[in-house]
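Hi team,

Filling in the usual template for the complex we talked about on Friday. All components are listed, including any nucleic acid strands or ligand strings, so the model treats them as one assembly.

SUBMITTER: L.P.
PURPOSE: interface mapping
COMPONENTS: two
RESIDUES: 443
SEQUENCES:
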Amino acid sequence: MTEKMPTIVVVDDSSTSISLYQFSLEPLAIDFIGFSSPAEALPYLAEHVPDLLFLDIVMPGMDGLTFLQRLRSLPQHQHTPVVMVTSKDYAQDRFIAKQLGALDFLIKPLRFKEIRELVYKHAKIKPLGIEQSSL
Amino acid sequence: MTADTSDRYLRFWGVRGSYPAPFASHLGVGGNTSCVEIYADGHLLVCDGGTGIIPLGNALMAQSALREVTIILTHYHWDHISGLPFFVPAFVPGWKVNFFGPGDCPTEIEKRISGQMQSPYFPVEVETWLANIHYLAVGHDGIIKETPFHITNFNVHHPGTTFGYRIEVGDKVIVYVSDNELSFIDQNIKARESELDSQEWQLITAMLAEERSKALKYLENADIFIHDAQYTTADYTKKRGWGHSCYIDTVNFAIEAGVKNLYLFHVDPNYADSKIEELHRDALRIIAERQSTLHCHIAREGTLIDLS
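RESULT (copied from the run log):
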């Protein structure tokens, strides 16, 4: 029986930003799913709990903070690991995200390696051989 | 209805950012905080409830044709809600006041609006609002339809959840973005430029272009663009990350978007009239240099714009 691969979900309205995650995580044995808005992600997340969720803040419709508040109201997502990755570098946003249980709050742009390091740290995935020594 | 010039108009009741500035040197532009009235075909829409909404409320009490108002809030920082506890129509039976603002549902909007009137911050709570108070939810199509206004909200760069609004009324498009820091992501990318490899750089510059094009989309065919122009370059350098724009970024963004009229709004309460006139002259210089057809104005308290 094959072991289920960890699932990494990204919610970000920028398709280029989703590609950035995709390129970064390509070498890892994971399932990657990208959604371009909270409205698109909600039906999936109602049924699935990912191993890590990367969440943008400024998006069309519901913003990332409101989305996280709604997600936390679902019993299965009270402890889903969430990392905020945004261009909004404000103390108030950091505070709200922390109150809602976000594990990290990072400012765009992130490098490929930095995205992988977040996955190693929060989704407990074994680093690529070449990156093991740098962690 | 507070003006008798036309069936459709926009009027500035409060144009200052951060806190009221009732100083003699500031009154040419105005000292009240954010509040803009838009009237069309017997319906009244108000953007934000800063201290400017207090004289608007008093003017509404002096007329009898209208008994309903819809107030859309960009966010709940004090300079956008501190006039609401003194907005007389909300306390008067027979009036209907509709509210919309950031929040996952109408109950959440109510909670945020009522918070500032709770003891010990104010002597009476929202229970003393005897008007019919209604909290609106956004439709499934993402549009708030309060006839004759079609209103779309979008998220902007300012601490906490903050909305900008695109308001369509008749053939006119008004975009109201009171608080927004325009150049944030550009500067973040610039700061990391030397670290990025060529593939990362390619993707990140494409991401920047995508973000820019999305932001510009809300301004398509805008006749009137009311936007944060809080700081000079020198002050913005000190206050980067406070969630407001330098007027130069605002002017350049409006030129890029091709809007017809820009109103420099949410100006800093430390700036006297003479300083704002100076910024305006510089804005006109930039527009001329870029050979743009943009008309740039200072948003002044009391200015009335015909929308017909």
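MY TAKE: Residues 198-217 of chain B form the longest helix (20 residues). Chain B has a mean pLDDT of 94.

Thanks, L.
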